[in-house]
Specification:
- By secondary structure, the chain is mainly beta.
- It has two helices and eleven strands, in the order H-E-E-E-E-E-E-E-E-E-E-H-E.
- It has helices at about 1-20, 175-180; strands at about 20-30, 35-40, 50-55, 60-70, 80-85, 90-100, 115-125, 140-145, 150-155, 165-170, 185-195.
- Strands 1, 2, 3, 4, 5, 6, 7, 8, 9, 10 and 11 form an eleven-stranded antiparallel sheet that branches.
- The radius of gyration is 20 Å and the shape is globular.
Length: about 200
């Protein structure tokens, strides 16, 4: 009887797994690529994802490559670039989604940032010593399609580093505040505000 029950349970597991999307899963810091094993996603997941987070401060570059099952609540982030920059830091997350088994295998491909100056400018400041809103001492030139000004004040931790206090203002992509899709860098208690950039 126990053998029959075990066989039934195993059959249910196999059937459930067969209905689930398979996605390659990996997470690696300090590199632009990662590879892993394809595993079944949770029921209801319809897309796989792969991407890269590029967080730069001065000459320091923090890269995080990732592949996974896409949380259905984050489907609106598919195919979009999330970006914020000022004269000291830049932060970019590129994400690509697909909807077939193991479709996120292969290299993580990142769209080059358009550095062509546009008509917009935003207030420019940065500190890693306080969560109080920093005071802008100048402006930063926005580029490409970035037409939004953003400000962040709070605590965050980059991959491999301790929790620190940050405050910054700069140019951002349109959906940066709305979606804010962090991967390697993690923000905790923070204020994030966006507003349309103005032409000088």
């Amino acid at each position: 009887m126990r053998a029959i029950l075990a066989a039934v349970v195993m059959l249910q597991v196999l059937i459930t797994g067969a209905d689930c999307l398979l996605c390659e899963q990996c997470f690696a810091t300090g590199t632009s690529q990662c590879s892993g094993v394809s595993k079944p996603c949770s029921p209801g997941v319809t897309h796989c994802i792969k991407g890269l987070e590029n967080d730069t401060q001065g000459t320091k570059v923090y890269l995080t490559a990732f592949k996974d099952c896409l949380d259905p609540s984050q489907k609106s982030t598919c195919g979009k670039e999330f970006f914020i920059k000022n004269s000291v830091v830049s932060f970019q997350v590129s994400r690509t989604c697909c909807d077939s088994d193991s479709c996120n295998r292969g290299d993580v491909e990142v769209t080059a940032v358009d550095k062509t100056p546009n008509e917009y400018k935003c207030k420019d400041c940065f500190t890693n010593q306080s969560t109080a809103a920093c005071t802008a001492s100048g402006e930063v030139q926005c580029t490409g399609e970035h037409d939004t000004c953003a400000s962040f004040s709070g605590t965050a931790a980059r991959p491999g580093e301790a929790l620190s206090q940050y405050s910054l203002k700069g140019c951002a992509s349109k959906d940066f505040c709305k979606l804010f899709p962090l991967v390697g860098t993690q923000a905790y208690i923070f204020d994030l505000l966006c507003s349309p950039a103005e032409k000088p």
